[in-house]
Amino acid sequence: MTYQPSSLQLQREAAKRRASRRSTLIALASTFAFGTLIAVVITGAQGYEKVKASFFNWHYAKQALPSVAHGLLLNLRVLVMAEFFVLLLGLLIAIARTTTSPVLYPLRLIATIYTDLFRGLPLLLVLLLVGLGIPGLRISWIPNSAVVLGTVALVLTYSAYVAEVIRAGIEGVNPTQRQAARALGLSQSQTLEHVVLPQALRNVTPPLLNDLVSLQKDSGLISVLGAVDAIRAAGIQTAQSFNFTPYLVAGALFVLLTIPLTRFTDWLTRKQDSRQRAQGQW
Amino acid sequence: MKPLFQISNLRKSFGTNLVLDDVSIDFPAQSTTVIIGASGSGKSTLMRCMNLLEELDDGQIHLDGSDISAYGIEIDSVRAQIGSVFQAFNLFPHLSVLDNITLAPRLVQKLKKETAEKLALELLKRFGLEDKADAFPNLLSGGQQQRVAIIRAVATNPKFLLLDEVTSALDPVLIAEVLTLIAELKSEGMTMVIATHEMGFAKKIADSVIFLHHGRVHETGTPAQIFEAPQSQELRDFLGALHQAGRL
User: Cα torsion at A98, A99, A102, A106 (round to 10°)?
Assistant: First the structure.
């Protein structure tokens, strides 16, 4: 005999459908009311026409786009280099901080001071100190290009953050894993390489990517050193036209640049969550 | 004949808490020794001292005639000769069953990848797990995970095997499959030290039983002596408690 839902179940389903229809209607109405309110407040503001003309001017936007986009290429180059060295340096510092051998005590000490220092210093300050201070030393073999020094400053600051994220990952691996590896006869470094790090890096990938998204947008700060990146290019355009629209163009490009990585991070986090649920952990 | 493994006058404390007090045990080659005792009697600490996961406070441990508790000994190479299996399996979750088993043979025993995998597949086949070679640990049942953990320990070709409460986290059906594997290893001549609460299994498999009480070897004997004719009041109390709990 084929299954016939009971009349009770049919009633329940009908009630559920009614409730969900009502939720949709309420959400639509609320969004519309909220949007109208914001539109009325902004367009009704006294200076609205002026702001619209100096920040949202389509003519200047089109005019600025090529040079701002060209500047963004520089940001892209900087952040690819910076991301590589940030991850490398961050990993090395994190490993240095988790060592226990007495011989390596100076290394641990340096790594600790490094992370304390560069996590505490405002990025803008590091940029100015590195970008203006190092050329001032007049050491001939050190490059004094704003792009290179700006990248160095980004790496200094962000590797300190990334090192802490990776260290948290290393310390988050269950100690019994390390114990099982050592019991099998693996050395300390073999245990780190084959058992601890693979698990640690997997666990901290979402927060790590979050730091990289932040690094992407902060690559725009190298403009303070005079490198002609997207923000600097927008500044030049603004200086010529006295219109702020180019800054908005640069902002829009930065948002577009970070969205793919942000979505990827979200996707990865969701995937890990569902995998752990499938394992029945927590 | 000299015993394969020998503990003499072992002492271990955590802070002011004396966990092992003057423990001396001989483990002859190819024998199976079962260690019983209440929680907190020092069973796990004794096991952890035996594979040098804990530092000794006093006493000596000899493996094959050489003192492995000597100061400055190559701990890694000693551990490579001792197989250890834990209550919580501790498989590596990021590696497949095959990679879990071949990791130590490749890195420690320096076997070629193909040789190590061939060996691992032979072991998996012998214990009925060959179809799980490429599976990841989280997809296995608890009993399968523990069998893989035992195979992982055996694959390093250890001189003897430490099994610390390997069935405590499993339900009765899964316990049976793990115990079958252990019995098979015994029939192949593996020297084993087993800490367990499975008294029925202990009776069947043990050559000698050691009753640990408050960190001391309180009574030793054959299974018949320990379970049928306990000498001390403490052992009688312990067995009585197990009996009441339906574990004997």
Answer: -70
Architecture of domain B5-244: 3-Layer(aba) Sandwich (3.40)
> Does the pLDDT value for residue A269 go beyond 90?
no
pTM of the predicted protein model = 0.82
- B-chain CB neighbours of A279 within 8 Å are 138
Query: A185, B152: Cβ pair inside 8 Å?
Result: no
B133-to-B83, B116, B143 alpha-carbon distances in Å = 20, 13, 15
Q: Which of B35, B16, B95, B32 is nearest to B216 (CA)?
A: B35
Q: Residue A281: what pLDDT? A: 43
With 0-12 CB in 10 A as exposed, 13-18 as middle and 19+ as buried, what is B65? exposed
Fold of domain A73-227 = MetI-like fold (1.10.3720)
Residue B62 parent element (H or E): strand B58-63
User: Residue A110 CA to chain centroid, in angstroms?
Assistant: 26
Cα A45 to Cα A41: distance, rounded to the nearest angstrom: 6
- Start and end residues for every CATH 1.10.3720.10 domain found in chain A: 73-227
Nearest CA in chain B to A186: B108
Taking an 8 Å cut-off on Cβ atoms, the answer to whether B90 and A176 are in contact is yes
- Does A185 contact B153 at a Cβ distance shorter than 8 Å? no
For tokens 């942000």, name the residue. A262
Q: Where are the alpha helices (DSSP H) in B188-232?
A: 199-205, 223-228
The beta-carbon neighbor of A185 closest among B88, B104, B138 is: B104
Question: Which chain B residues touch A194 with a CB distance below 8 Å?
Answer: 103, 107
| CA distances in angstroms from B130 to A117, A208, B133, B141, B182, listed in the order given | 53, 38, 6, 15, 18
The residue of chain B with its CA nearest to that of A181 is: B104
Q: Write out the H or E segment, with its range, that includes residue B10.
A: strand B5-14
A282 confidence band (pLDDT: 50, 70, 90): very low
Whole-number Å distance between alpha carbons of A221 and A228: 11
Whether A277 has a pLDDT exceeding 70, the answer reads: no
Token duo for residue B96: 């497949």
pLDDT category at A276 given cuts 50, 70, 90 is: low
Contacts of B92 in chain A (CB under 8 A): 177, 180-181, 195, 199
Q: How many CB atoms lie within 10 A of CB A17?
A: 10
Handedness of CA B153, B159, B165, B166 (dihedral sign): positive
What is each CA distance from B194 to A235, B44, B83, B85, B175, in whole angstroms?
75, 10, 12, 10, 14
Best A184, A189, A272 member to test B by mutation, with max B CBs in 10 Å, is: A184
Helix pair B113-126, B97-107: axis angle to 10 deg? 130
Q: How far is B117 from chain A (nearest CA, A)?
A: 17
- pLDDT band for B1, please (50, 70, 90 cuts): low
More confident residue, B32 or A269: B32
CB A223 within 8 A of CB A250: no
